[in-house]
Design brief:
Blueprint (H helix, E strand, L loop, with lengths): L1 H21 L3 E10 L3 H9 L9 H5 L4 E5 L8 E5 L6 E10 L3 E10 L3 E12 L2 E11 L2 H7 L4 H34 L1
Antiparallel strand pairs: 1-7, 2-3, 3-4, 4-5, 5-6, 6-7
């Protein structure tokens, strides 16, 4: 009887390993938002890593997070490292491409609670009402992450954070655009 249980358990484990091994490694998560502000205003909020405190969803998860900025203040070579609680972990972002006002590419390195390197791309398209921004993240899952993805919807989980971040970015950018417009009107 014990032998049958062990054989059955081995078969279940083998099937699980087979299913996980055949899952795709590459993933893509993407969200977009319309912002009533010009692309250069929205671009500046993302390109300056210091400005992320005003809109990043992860900043709100750990207000006591330790932050370190290195390199240039914005644009290619700007670096933002963090060390926080269990919700935000530890990692580093480096701006690899900054093409005003259309695109920013960031290398995103997670160090804790797990190691991973992903690429985040922000695109800014002008619209009659302002800017259409798209925030995307691409990467590859290892075996453990592919296994976890069987039980958790990573697109909904991370995508929800992107949606909260974009909503906050919208508020910050629209306020910045209004302040810029009010300042220009006052100067006339």
């Amino acid at each position: 009887m014990v032998r049958k249980i062990l054989i059955g358990l081995a078969v279940v484990i083998a099937l699980f390993v087979l299913v996980v091994a055949t899952r795709p490694s590459a993933f893509h998560i993407e969200r977009s938002a319309a912002i009533a502000a010009p692309p250069d205003v929205v671009f500046a909020q993302v390109d300056d890593l210091h400005a992320w405190a005003g809109w990043s969803p992860w900043e709100k998860m750990d207000p006591q997070m330790k932050k370190l900025f290195d390199g240039k203040p914005s644009g290619v070579g700007a670096i933002y490292a963090w060390e926080g609680n269990d919700k935000v972990g530890e990692g580093r972002m480096t701006i690899e491409k900054s093409e005003p006002p259309g695109r920013i590419v960031i290398k995103l390195e997670f160090l804790k609670p797990f190691e991973a390197t992903n690429i985040c791309t922000f695109t800014f398209a002008p619209t009659p009402a302002g800017t259409q921004i798209t925030w995307a993240m691409d990467g590859n899952n290892g075996f453990m992450a592919k296994g976890a993805a069987l039980f958790m919807n990573m697109d909904a989980l991370v995508g929800g954070d992107f949606e909260r971040g974009l909503a906050a970015l919208k508020a910050v950018s629209e306020a910045a655009a209004k302040a810029k417009s009010d300042g220009a009107n006052a100067a006339k």
